[in-house]
Amino acid sequence: MYAVILTGGKQYKVKEGDRIKIAMLNADEGKKVDFDKVLMIVDGEKVSIGTPYIKDALVGAEVIKHGRHKKIRIIKFRRRKHHMKHAGHRQYYTEVEIKKIPGSTKKESAPEKSAPKESTVKVAAKEKEKDKKKAPQKSSAKETAKKAVTEKKVTAKKVAKVAEKKR
Question: Is 151 in the same domain as 76?
């Protein structure tokens, strides 16, 4: 069983017992945190997809620690201008351990489950139509060069034949 949650503007696929590093949260170490923006829950064959979030679904987690990621180095360099600028950045994070993932909500009904499958079929059909409508690809530079060379050879041969006939 796993769930896809949204926090800090990013999506995370989580299972019970996973430890993930997410954007900094204002919660003390050892405190429990609930993520209410649950996009999807998968339990074997049973899939619950939200529009955009699943109602009344909370993924429970516990804050393990706070910290900072490795430094990201930024260098701005202008060649031949005697200019080089160094900078660095360390992003804060909160490490959490996923404690519980709920089952699908009771309010969700069977027609809602079948709707995403139909939409994926429609999307696949639209992609196929787009592929058919695409313009033919342009030939590569090598192919056009080969064509030009063969055309030149043909014209040179024709000129030679015409010159021989005149003699």
Answer: no
